[in-house]
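Pilot study result, target chain (269 residues):
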Amino acid sequence: MTQDRAHLNRLAEQWSTDLGSWAIPDEILAQVSTPPWVHPVEMFTVDDHVPDSLSHRRAREAVPHGGSVLDVGSGGGRASFALTPPAGRVTAVDHQQAMLDEYASSAVRRGLVHHGCLGDWPAVAVSVPECDVVVCHHVAFNVAQIVPFLQALNDHAINRVVMEIPTLHPQTHLNPLWKKFWGIERPTRPCAADLAGITTAMGFKSTLEVWQDESWGRRVQMPEAERIRYARIRLCLDENRDAEVGVALIELGVEQPHEVATLWWDRSA
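Predicted structure:
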């Protein structure tokens, strides 16, 4: 094994180990009735107008007029619909059929040629065409085997890959509440810089840009009670704890904007 390959393997193993440290203790999971990692479709709906961002601009730079976009972990399609126009064709990959249904509905409303693929990336990559630009927003922190995931993104991009993730794990803001309600310390790694280091070790000429997302937490209009409910589910608490969670969230004082990282590179052969 070459030194470069050994270095990449170490980084990838550390990434997997760090993600594994986010596992919720079995004794806590055994008490819940709703899985804490639920992703409700209503939190991923996309308005007709998508506010611009650095991630969208980096992707748009590489999309020709009428070109194609592949959205991996698409959710409702914010990452790809922000690129239409100039893109005219969009493909979504998601592991939830309800997300793909929402995506298709939005694509039809926008008059776009669209295709959906149900499954996990990169397992379904063989069924997905190459596109001018591949976008992948807020997915990487769910991927333990990160190298094949990134390689498949690269291999499906004709021009560019653009990823977006928070600079820290998206559940980091709830760490004080895990301490408050359960008395346990939660991890803080991996982070966006770790992901950038892996792409560099893979030979991609990647760029990491950090910025403040002014729209974080405001992208979808949801009643405050629903936001509290989903935070409570994330914390593995019973429904009779909603009021306590609501007060704790106010005391926590999580304010906007949120620090986000855009990681992008032009396709590497």
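One observation from the pilot: The radius of gyration is 19 Å. A full batch analysis is planned for the follow-on phase.
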